[in-house]
Specification:
Elements: E1 8-11, E2 18-22, E3 25-29, H1 44-67, E4 74-82, E5 88-96, H2 102-112, H3 116-123
Antiparallel strand pairs: 1-2, 2-3, 4-5
Length: 133
């Protein structure tokens, strides 16, 4: 068993705001004003999307480096959706500054579907919660 990530959040005075610490990094999490927050930082579902797109970018760059490919500058975006029936899904978009061959487009889509965070989200994850006293 290995820990591959760690984060801690501590409440702040403002409703819904918290200070997140992960390794040497710190940032604020909050809810949008429309949900009663101060919109000082990303909301929890924004962080899920951020994790997915960050992993996608890193995985594609690692793949390209390993294969000696030049992907050029690109961006990855994601939207988290939920419908009235409670179905949830994420739509991820890749945009490349330079044109890609059809073969490379297909490989990029294949690699994107196999990133570690993609796999985790697709299979779900068990969450165990304990009280620490």
């Amino acid at each position: 068993m290995a820990i591959i990530a760690n984060a801690e959040v501590r409440t702040l005075a403002e409703p819904w705001s918290g200070e997140v610490r992960s390794g040497t990094h710190q940032f604020i999490t909050d809810k949008p004003e429309s949900f009663g927050g101060q919109d000082q930082g990303p909301a929890p579902y924004d962080l899920i999307c951020s994790g997915l797109i960050s992993c996608t970018m890193i995985t594609l760059r690692m793949y390209a480096s390993h294969k000696g490919l030049e992907l050029g500058e690109f961006s990855v975006e994601a939207d988290f959706y939920v419908n009235k029936e409670g179905k949830e899904w994420i739509e991820r978009r890749l945009s490349f500054a330079q044109p890609l061959s059809e073969e490379l487009k297909q490989k990029v889509l294949e690699i994107s579907s196999k990133t570690p965070v993609t796999k985790t989200l697709l299979r779900s994850v068990e969450i165990k919660t304990v009280l620490v006293e």
